[in-house]
Write a structure and sequence with these properties.
Helix content is about 40%, strand content about 20%.
Length: about 260
Amino acid sequence: MKRTFRLGTTSYIYPDDILPNVRRLASRVDDIELVLFEVDDYGTNLPDPATIAELKTLATDHALSYTVHLPIDLDWRDARSFEKIFRALDATRPLDPFAYILHLDGRMLIGEPSSAAIAQWQSETMRALDRVVAHIDPSRLCIENLERWAPEFFTAIVAQKNLARCVDVGHLWKQARDPLPHLRAHIAQTRVIHLHGINGRDHQSLAWQARDEVNRVLDFLARAEFAGVLTLEVFNVDDFVSSQQVVAEWENGLL
């Protein structure tokens, strides 16, 4: 089937910093997910102005877009969480990213949370998101589903705040969930899709995933004429090349 989406991967395919990765990947993908971090033990990889300038040039030269994976789960109990997110937004704003990917802190939702705990989490998360969307176009802020808790907990929040979604298909596979019902329900709000295989852990090559499972997802995206970004969210050369090959075989009708 014809591919309607932009195909991307992460900024950590090669064991190097963001800029060398983008230089090597720019001609091979349509989008690069800039995976940002800021942690006490390892410092930060937020791009400085010189790096941003070269990233902008590479984007222009290669018709490349960027998605930005924000550096920390949004924890309304921790002021540093907001500070790190705001620094990442400020650093990357000149790139005009196609989307920003955000994890919500769902520790309260693991297991079987009470209705009171769910209500508290939703209320506090909405207030926390109000602080974030004051700095960003909400339609570009994509809430990602994680493998440790159910995405249904934030469905109403995304709708009420007019946010977007990052549907991580690999996380749904890891939860032993069929991703198709989730995609059908939320494709209109989905700006980014993460795709990766499962082999003991997630973020492995798509080659580990049953081809019919991969086909069902890609066929659905083609039929839906999904025009967002599909990120092969893997983190080494072998996984990237083999995952890209799986998509190419599907596109050429070889799967």
